[in-house]
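Quick look at the format.
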Amino acid sequence: MTRILIALFALGLAGAASAQGRPQSPTLSCAANRQSVLANGAIVLGTGGFTYDRFVRDRSFCQFDETTFPAWVPARDTPQCFVGYRCKNVSPWDD
């Protein structure tokens, strides 16, 4: 009985997904924020408080009906840091 409980406990620990915190742009330097986007291609960055957005390296990380717009975030060393792009829908039907 004890072995069964230990096995179930171990499986429960292994299966539990721990939440990963997203990087917060105001706590990182501008270069570190930019490098995160370049290295990952697409990343969700916290931009302060409870706000966040998805930033991409280029259009290849967007949906087929989206295009890119330049994106700036607050960084530790500058209030406006160009980190890459945001994907935005350009469909005329969404206005």
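Next, a different chain entirely:
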Amino acid sequence: MDNAAIEEMFETLGPVTIRRMFGGKGIYFEGVIFALEVDGEILLKGDAESAPEFEQAGSRQWAYDGKGKTVKMPYWSIPDAALDDPDEMARWVRIAYAAGLRSKK
């Protein structure tokens, strides 16, 4: 996904910064990472507080194989309902940003 498309996706939050990392991209707002782009997919930051919301919305948690062991990361797929609804997307973006703020503490 190109940077312009990512910026447009998150415009309700404000201007984002995009940095290349580990073959993907980190997406930041005011210095807080709240999303990733990995293999063309956008993943939103979650934490213990927001993970149940992501699960209930049908999102899947990002995981990778780390030396024969599955490693779950605190990032979730965008809920299907948010993909075609800008208001719903804005809500999930705020949830991800709040998780990013909590993780900085």
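The mean pLDDT is 94.

See the schema section for token definitions.
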